[in-house]
Amino acid sequence: MTLSATVLMHPRFTVGAVDRRLFGSFVEHLGRAVYTGIYEPTHTTADEHGFRKDVADLTRELGVSVVRYPGGNFVSNYVWEDGVGPVADRKPFIDLAWRTVEPNTVGTDEFLQWAEREGVEPMMAVNLGTRGVAAAAALVEYCNGEPGTRWADMRVANGRTEPYGVRLWCLGNEMDGPWQVGAKDALEYGRLAAEAGKAMKLVDPTIELVACGSSGMGMPTFGEWERTVLECTWDVVDHISAHAYYEEHDGDRASFLASATSMDRFIRRVVASADAVAARKRSDKQITVSFDEWNVWYMTGRGGGAPTSSAAGIQRDAPRIIEDVYSALDAVVVGDLLVTLLNNADRVPLACLAQLVNVIAPIMTEPGGESWRQPTFHPFATTAELARGTALDLRVDAPTTTTKEHGEVPLVTAAATVDEQTGALALFLTNRSPEPVEVTLDHLGAQVTLEGAKRMVADHDPAVHGPEHAAQAIASCWGEVDTADVRSEGNRTTVTLPAESWTAWNGTLR
């Protein structure tokens, strides 16, 4: 049986501009994200600074625009001053978040110079768990200050004369979480974040600040946390964060395929909370959402979990932590989550796929060995490549299904962008149904030509670690689409979507 759906598109119906920072990622000092991830001096591809060129090449191919650093939970116990200066003088310390020994070989300068060489914008986080206002302002001065002051001169002494010009700053990380070192209630955090943010902007008024939102929509303080934090920080912050991870529970494939419904609700509820504060303050300021952690994460398997309990021993030498292995099904879900981010482009200018390498990542490596793409790599890279210009406000009329986790959800989702200068169109379609769906695109008032597409079709095979399985899954589930079945008649174009698939079309809109 083939189901049917309709997508209404008009070039004057728009969501907003697509910020390139929507295609960010995340590198935390966790597991092998840094050591034997982006950095491995003894690797055959290592550059003169010790960073793996093969990973850098894949990062560029992935289309990453922003990289958040150094955490994550890690940042709440991090003393940034200990990670600068001569490497031989730096002392290892116990990272309380992941209960590992951090060697302090890679720190602020190494990361920022890597980001600069690779053409990605850094997004720095400050420690508001065990530290506070003075350390946060000092780090901004170290990174962005002109020579002639204490912390800027320390940077100069460490070999960097020119300021780094870091614009994006996170005011801590997941401070509502009891797992966080230095966790706080909303009022305590809000007051600290307000003072830290004020001091940081006194050092550099051009920076953008991200306040910690709820670390999940299921947190007991969700909503009230956002209200309280924004009441405190309204005058200094520009964005509020959202974090969410998704996985298949107990074989509930339908709910998993509809994970993006939950992401959309999360965004809308955070936006509603922010706008309620704006209304109470009679303010025209618009706080946007920095969705700076999102991904599929199997917390109960596939390498999920981490030795964070007091009963676990301290691990050394970049242990393998949270190295999830992904299937084509996971890649379809990742593609659909990107659809949701595009459809909220007016209020979500920043997002970070967590993480970049090895830790719940699209890129995997072996120490001293090869690097490879997981299936989730491809929908992200394709969306980052094609989505340009303005996100269109599509109207989707599709059959629905009732899921255990999300209630009634549409079986087809869609997002589209158009480059108004060139007319380049990108159309992203997800079929969550176990049946094929015929989608009719009604493009009233415009001429649409679909020129080519790439597609991921979900599999039913267990994910297995290693480049061989990844290559096999990609070869069987990912590839170019035969455009012979595209039917166009006037202002109507029809395509067929295979069951449980994600498709990215490129074309023109005139």
Walk me through this protein's architecture.
- It comes from Cellulomonas bogoriensis 69B4 = DSM 16987.
- Keywords: Carbohydrate metabolism, Glycosidase, Hydrolase.
- InterPro entries: Alpha-L-AF_C, ASD1_cat, GH, Glyco_hydro_b.
- 26% of the residues lie in helices and 26% in strands.
- The mean pLDDT is 95.
- The strands form six sheets. It has an eight-stranded parallel barrel with strand order 3-4-7-8-9-10-11-12, surrounded by six helices. A seven-stranded antiparallel β-sheet has the order 2-15-19-20-26-22-23. A five-stranded mixed β-sheet has the order 16-1-21-25-24, with no helix packed on it.
- It has one domain (14-391): TIM Barrel, CATH 3.20.20.
- It has helices spanning 53-62, 108-118, 133-144, 150-157, 186-203, 224-233, 253-257, 259-281, 328-343, 377-386, 467-477, and strands at 3-8, 14-17, 24-26, 66-69, 93-95, 100-102, 121-126, 168-171, 208-211, 239-246, 288-296, 350-354, 363-365, 371-373, 390-392, 395-397, 400-403, 407-410, 412-418, 424-431, 437-442, 448-457, 478-480, 487-489, 492-497, 501-509.
- It is globular and about 70 Å long.
- The protein contains eleven helices and 26 strands.
- It has 510 residues and is an alpha/beta fold.
- The two termini are 34 Å apart.
